[in-house]
UniProtKB/TrEMBL annotation:
An annotated GO cellular component: cytoplasm
UniProt name for this protein: N-acetyltransferase domain-containing protein
Origin species: Draconibacterium sediminis
Classification via InterPro entries: Acyl_CoA_acyltransferase, GNAT_dom, Ribosomal_N-acetyltransferase
Molecular functions per Gene Ontology: protein N-terminal-serine acetyltransferase activity; protein-N-terminal-alanine acetyltransferase activity
Pfam families registered for this protein in UniProt: Acetyltransf_3 (PF13302)
All residue ranges annotated as the N-acetyltransferase domain in the record: 9-163
Length: 166
C-alpha cells in the first residue's frame, strides 16, 4: 500500500510524465509540487475510513504507477478501480495484471459484489483493460469528469462477483 515515504517518487513520475498523463488524469493539473502528492497520500493514509486502498505498482524494481479502490460503498458491496501508469511502462501488461489481482482481492477478501471501472471515452488504451478482463460495458456517464480541456464522457464497465471463477 502507498505510504507517505513514497510521495517524492510518485511526484517525480507525475512531473516527468506530466504531458502524457494530463490528457486523461484531471488531478495532474493540480499536482505542481511534491507537497500536493504528500497531501493526497496523507488524505488516504490518515483517514479514519480506510476503504479506499491505494497501492503502488513496481516493475523490475522501478516505480510504475498507482492503482486502487475509490468510492467504496460497504453497504452495497461495490467499489471502483482507478489506475495510472508511467508512460515508459505502457504496453507491458502491467495494469491488466494488477487489475486482475485487485478484482480477485475485492471479491474474495473484501466480499465485494460489484467492481466498476470508468474510462474516458477517447482513452482507447485504458478501455482495453476492462474489455480484456471480461467487464461488461454498461453505458456512458455523460460529461462525467472535468479535464483541462473541458468535460469528458466516461464509459462504465463492471464485473459482478458471480461472473468470476473462484
Amino acid at each position: 500500500m502507498i505510504n507517505s515515504s513514497m510521495a517524492e517518487i510518485v511526484f517525480q513520475t507525475i512531473d516527468r510524465d506530466r504531458e502524457y498523463l494530463k490528457k486523461w488524469l484531471p488531478f495532474v493539473q493540480h499536482t505542481s509540487k511534491v507537497e500536493d502528492t504528500q497531501a493526497f497520500i496523507d488524505s488516504i493514509t490518515r483517514s479514519s475510513n480506510k476503504s479506499d486502498l491505494i497501492f503502488t505498482i513496481w516493475y523490475n524494481e522501478e516505480f510504475a504507477g498507482l492503482i486502487g479502490f475509490k468510492d467504496t460503498d460497504w453497504v452495497n458491496r461495490k467499489t471502483e478501480l482507478g489506475y495510472w501508469l508511467a508512460e515508459k511502462m505502457q504496453g507491458k501488461g502491467i495494469i491488466t495484471a494488477c487489475v486482475e489481482k485487485l478484482v480477485r482481492f475485492a471479491f474474495q477478501k473484501q466480499k465485494m459484489n460489484r467492481i466498476q471501472i470508468k474510462v474516458a471515452e477517447e482513452n482507447l488504451q485504458s478501455e482495453k483493460i476492462p474489455q480484456k478482463l471480461g467487464f461488461v460495458y454498461e453505458g456512458t456517464e455523460r460529461q462525467g469528469e472535468h479535464h483541462n480541456t473541458g468535460y469528458v464522457n466516461l464509459k462504465i464497465y463492471s464485473k459482478l462477483k458471480h461472473e468470476i471463477a473462484d
